[in-house]
Design a protein that fits this description.
Length: 775
């Protein structure tokens, strides 16, 4: 176990260095460099005409939805020129590329050779242009017809002892329509083994919020940002991962709002913004963003929230009725007194020390919140990918309900989602733990009995593969090997598969670390024109604020062999289920309108779907807490205060906390480029950001080559050959890039209740690099 396979040495994680250059980290985001970086990518990949055609239609009403992140478009006015950011343009460049991978490419390049490339090089090869098949024992992918591909997969699925020996993964770009038919097929086939990227992402949010406020989604709309007094941004790096959020923050500031950033790193996009769409921004004048920057220790957020609540309680005692919203608390909550008693147990100084922030700064935060309830709290992976992620989300709810900052204009909870349709996937029942009510509805609409047992999530899927219990893995997008934790363990698991099938736009590492048989089924991307039976189709997506909107691709697909994801599902369903099926797959294969009509029957909030989706700008899904109505896990129409303990961090001597982050030049495992401009890192990704004091104590210099070790559960994990970069980060804390450091994240280090890998905190030791004996 945990050794490189003989046939594929180091395929999971090439350990090689490039040529690191460092510059000073930036103090603001975007501006002219963002515009030029985006243009370079577009021109290199798609060319001028195709690139401009794509950019012009991106995020416009009647155009296509950016496939990047889930940040919403403005409800009303959209920019006549550009409704996208640098990273949206890079996402487009990545899929609009004219480079393509045909049978000749795969004949010339063996799987073993391809696996030696780094992720950047693999991604830059181009779009997959035809279905390919890697038979058992073969060294090269070979062409296969669509019909034969479906026959092979169907035969395998039908040969399994139980449908639960197969798992069906989803990454967050799949449309509502394809997600719905996909889960329908999987459930009619007979399993709830539907792991998805959410399991590694905002699952702690979904679990925490569903329990606390009755819906696993945020409660704000974009317009709330323009009508608020304080925005807290916790564990999120919007300048890179949700760049158009900076325009919303700029407008919020113009309207008088204050911003509090909570982050172990000083991120450029939280400090300042030069809006490339304004004269001011183009002249290089930046808007100052964070008014207060709380440089918390990794996973010190819970301690910080408790400390803020404590100081607010103190202020409330001094001026009774002025700080907490007693009417809200009385009408809508349960457990207030018990919560205050709980809060009283903690010493302020202890909380401040655990958070790593001086009491005086926490007091500043409390003062900013004291006299207003118009507060929006935003969060992302810094909060969710933690052992206590669910508890921290619930602590965010505690703070919000003390202030009555939910269900009113300018206030609310704002988890900022990842992929462009990850929220829609879950609404469409891509879920390993579907609710009985949802399954009853499927049964009522379609007439088959869906499986009731919960399926495997991501971590459980990997463990089941490893144990030989999962034999077939089907992925609707994504890059399972690189996105998941414990890379070598997961690679071992994937090598045990009898069959893997990847529906994909681009080649990635998951296609190259394989078991017996593997198929890659190429598909259309968001910007591609989608013509079925001579008719141009459109799909729809749900953004981070619950708006469902149409998206119509316009670019000529690079190959006639590409089909859309819904067609793949319907054809696979026919091949696998044949006359066993009670679903009219032929009709759904031909028309998204037909799929939407049945979604309207099966999923609440989608009544009149075909009509509403055609309204320019789309429609909002129902959201009771946004209207001030609550139905918590306890079913008593109240929000319950949650009492959580502080996380314990048992560290051995010489260990550091390590968080994993995204560079400015990547979308998850897709590496757009090798620079992280805002953090001043160029031409290298195998870096470890360290505090200078820590470096001095350990005797490391800038550029020192080191190996990183994790020993969770008594098993040694090693990430070799990283370069030390001095950085403004709290002592004892370090950061590395995902996915290179995923080797170090233990498969069984997961968040309580959500089972999300703890990608934002593992404990490591750092040693000078040693050259391996076998090299
Ligand atoms: N361009 C681009 N856009 C993306 C993505 C991408 O890869 N590239 N990915 C998409 C996806 S799927 C997602 S989920 C989102 C992710 O969006 P983010 O959550 O913003 O992404 P990360 O880089 O993982 O980390 C977020 C921030 O958390 C901070 N952090 C780390 N540990 C802690 C902690 O313990 N406490 C606090 N308070 N902060 C901490 C890091 O310093 C970093 O600034 O972005 C989406 N958008
Ligand atoms: N250490 C660490 N690990 C993490 C994280 C972290 O912060 N730290 N973040 C986690 C998070 S938040 C997430 S969401 C996951 C992401 O996990 P995934 O969703 O599995 O990964 P992505 O990199 O987004 O997937 C990219 C691949 O999707 C395919 N693709 C792109 N567009 C399409 C499309 O339109 N259709 C189809 N069929 N395929 C397409 C391409 O082949 C591309 O290579 O990773 C998680 N892993
Ligand atoms: S903010 Fe997100 S959705 Fe909007 S253009 Fe940028 S990457 Fe695309
Ligand atoms: Mo994500």
């Amino acid at each position: 176990m945990n050794k490189h396979s003989k046939e594929q040495p180091a395929a999971e994680n090439p350990e090689e260095l490039l040529d690191l250059k460092l510059t000073k980290p930036e103090k603001w985001a975007a501006g002219i460099p963002a515009v030029s970086a985006a243009m370079v990518d577009i021109l290199q990949e798609a060319g001028f005409v195709r690139g401009m055609e794509g950019l012009f239609k991106m995020n416009k009403k009647g155009g296509f939805d950016c496939s990047g992140c889930a940040w919403p478009d403005p409800d009303d006015d959209r920019s006549p020129i550009a409704e996208y950011c640098e990273n949206g343009a890079k996402a487009l460049a990545e899929e609009a590329t004219t480079k393509k991978l045909t049978a000749e490419f795969f004949a010339q390049n063996s799987v073993e050779e391809l696996a030696k490339l780094n992720d950047y090089e693999i991604g830059k090869k181009g779009r997959i242009a035809q279905p390919v098949y890697l038979p058992k024992g073969a060294t090269h992918y070979q062409p296969i017809s669509w019909d034969d591909a479906f026959k092979q997969i169907a035969a395998k699925l039908n040969s399994l002892a139980s449908p639960n020996e197969a798992a069906f993964y989803t990454s967050g770009r799949t449309s509502n329509e394809a997600s719905f038919t996909y889960q329908l097929f999987v459930r009619e086939y007979g399993t709830n083994n539907m792991p998805d990227c959410s399991n590694m992402c905002h699952e702690s949010t979904s679990v925490g919020l569903a329990d606390a406020i009755g819906i696993g989604k945020g409660t704000v709309t974009l317009n709330d940002f323009y009508d608020t007094d304080v925005i807290i941004i916790m564990g999120q790096n919007p300048g890179t991962n949700h760049p158009r959020m900076l325009s919303a923050l700029e407008k919020a500031k113009q309207n008088g709002s204050k911003i509090i950033a909570v982050n172990p790193l000083h991120e450029a996009g939280l400090m300042g913004f030069k809006n490339p769409q304004t004269v001011k921004g183009l002249l290089g004048i930046s808007t100052h963003l964070a008014d207060l920057y709380l440089q918390v220790k990794i996973n010190g957020d819970m301690a910080l929230l408790l400390a803020i609540e404590k100081l607010l309680y103190k202020a409330e005692m001094e001026t009774p009725g002025k700080v907490f919203d007693h009417e809200f608390i009385k009408n809508n909550t349960e457990g207030y007194v018990a919560f205050l008693n709980h809060l009283n147990q903690f010493e302020l100084e202890y909380l401040a020390a655990e958070a790593g922030i001086p009491v005086a700064q926490i007091q500043q935060a409390a003062d900013m919140l004291k006299n207003t309830s118009r507060i929006i709290i935003c969060w992302a992976m810094g909060v969710t990918q933690q052992k206590n992620g669910v508890a921290t989300v619930k602590e965010i709810v505690n703070l919000s309900i003390l202030k009555g900052a939910i269900g009113k204009p300018g206030a609310g909870l704002c988890p900022v989602r990842g992929h462009s349709n990850v929220q829609g996937n879950r609404t469409m029942m891509i879920w390993d733990k579907p609710k009985p009510k949802q399954l009853d509805k499927l049964k009522e609409v379609f007439g088959f009995e869906p499986p009731r047992d919960h399926g495997y999530d991501v971590v459980e899927s990997i463990q089941a593969m490893h144990a030989g219990k999962l034999k077939v893995f089907f992925a609707m997008g994504g890059n399972f090997l690189s996105a998941t934790p414990d890379t070598l363990y997961t690679a071992d698991a994937m090598r045990k598969l009898e069959m893997a099938v990847h529906v994909s736009t681009k080649l990635n590492r998951s296609h190259l670390v394989h078991g017996d048989e593997t198929l890659i089924l190429p598909t259309l991307s968001r910007s591609d024109k989608d013509v079925v039976n001579g008719e141009a189709q459109f799909i729809s997506c749900e953004n981070s604020m619950g708006v469902v909107q149409m998206s119509k691709g316009i670019l000529e697909p690079i190959s006639k062999d590409l089909v859309n994801e819904n067609q793949i599902v319907c054809r696979l369903a026919k091949a696998t289920l044949g006359s066993r099926s009670v679903v009219d797959w032929d009709t759904y294969e031909k028309s998204y309108d037909a799929v939407r009509d049945v979604i309207a029957k099966a999923i609440p909030g989608f009544e009149d779907y075909n009509k509403k989706v055609r309204i320019p700008g789309g429609f909002y899904l129902p959201n009771a807490p946004r209207e001030g109505k609550f139905e918590s896990g306890q079913n008593d129409a109240k929000v319950h205060f949650t009492m959580s303990d502080l996380p314990k961090h048992d560290m051995a001597a010489g260990e550091y906390r390590m968080t994993t982050i995204r560079s400015h030049d990547q979308f998850n495992t897709t590496i757009y480029g090798l620079d992280d401009r805002y953090r001043g890192v160029h031409n290298e990704r195998r870096v470890i950001f360290m505090n200078e004091q820590d470096m001095a104590e350990a005797g490391f210099k800038e550029g020192e080559q080191v190996d990183l070790y994790n020993n969770f559960g008594g098993r040694e994990r090693v990430a070799r050959l990283f370069v030390v970069v001095p950085y403004n980060i709290p002592q004892g804390n370090t950061a590395t890039y995902y996915p290179e450091a995923n080797v170090l994240i233990p498969i069984d280090s997961v968040a309580e209740k959500s089972n999300t890998p703890t990608s934002k905190l593992v404990f490591i030791s750092i040693k000078r690099h040693v050259v391996k004996a076998d090299k």
